[in-house]
Amino acid sequence: MIDQRAWSVRVHEDFRDLEQLEGQWNHWAEDPPFRRYDWQRTWWEVYGPGSLSRKRSRLCILEVRHGETLAGIVPLYREWHPLWGWVLRWLGSGEVCSDYLGPIAPACYQEHVGRVAIIALHALALGKSRFQDVTIDRSPAPRLTCHRIDWDGMRADDPAVQAVRIQAETLKWALDVRPTESSWQLALPRTWGEYLDSLQPRSVRRRYRKLSRAYLDHPDLVLHVVGKQEVFGTPCDDNWQSAWNILVQLHQARRRQVGDQGLFASTQFEVFHRRILTEYLPSGRAALAWLEWQGQPIAAEYLLLSGKTVMAYQSGINPDFLTLSPGHLMSLSLIREAIRWGFETFDLLRGDEPYKRHLGARPTPLVRIRAAPPQVSARWRFTLWNWGRHSRELLRRMKAKNIDFGGTMMEDDQVAAVDS
What we know:
Layout: E1 7-12, H1 22-29, H2 37-47, E2 57-66, E3 69-81, E4 85-90, H3 110-125, E5 130-131, E6 134-137, E7 148-155, H4 159-170, E8 174-179, E9 183-187, H5 192-198, H6 202-216, E10 221-226, H7 229-232, H8 241-257, H9 267-283, E11 286-293, E12 296-306, E13 309-317, H10 326-341, E14 345-350, H11 354-358, E15 362-364, E16 366-372, H12 376-400, H13 412-419
Parallel strand pairs: 1-6, 4-7, 13-14
Antiparallel strand pairs: 1-2, 2-3, 3-4, 5-6, 7-16, 8-16, 9-14, 9-15, 10-11, 11-12, 12-13
Helix pairs in contact: 2-9, 3-4, 6-10
């Protein structure tokens, strides 16, 4: 049970009601830009009910107080799905792929805010204005239909996330918690030489040393960075759209080559980031970089900056220069410059691609939580979803082993090759 002193939760359905909390919100959000007020408000303005894809969505931000003290903020929205009903998700989730999401609170309140959030959602689903020493304020009525929560991109070791799991089980919610792709961080040493010496295994170290000698100091290879001058030593060009266009062109060209439409095929994705960069570039929270070989752009990177951390958020490579390993050259160039700029961590964010381990990064486990309150309609929908998930997993395993419905199977050595 949580502390027996008075807790209260106010449900906000309009960002204008939260403007006075912006400073506290950003202070508690700490470093990751994905948790900041400006990132999440911009996301809602672009991806909210004004968009074609989310016309039936509603803001649902929980303001949690302990007595008169603001204890935390839980930034959610709910979206209607024809099969799963009203689903609660984090602001900033979806194709923007924000990492490190979760309740926003100081360390002393994180666990409590996670517990109180689930208790409040439980009470709202049941149409109650009070439940287990938690008072819920939502006008005009206390009921808020919720058939499921679907929370992605959370650190597995987040105290608030762990509290959510425990409290949901206590309240008899149906619960599905599973790991997703990890995020990957590289602790930067003091010098470039130390970094190269630290790479493992030896084959990777030899390869990156060879790339470094052959290209990084070659006069035909030039790294351009657009960002705050005090950070990078180069002026922030107001006309940063040229750097942006290079990123978009290279990203889309590479994705089309591998049969994917690319993220920038989404108008909303591009609009969102153009708005974010308008604020983040001059303030030193973002940078755009591209790498040229003999005057031709061969790679580009969209960086987010947070304290002493550089985050490699989105990239693109020129498919006409694959023999140069442009992706590896861009990563190595940025890591070398990040050391020179004085950063301490290079964060490669979510995704378990092998190159991240080769660069020396270490994984931080992330989890996804799906849960349904103890109501007949919510449980029925959750059971249907769970059955569908198990069916898809079974089909994927059968496809991986090349099993058809007639019982044909590849030879054992072929199966082993596929599984590896």
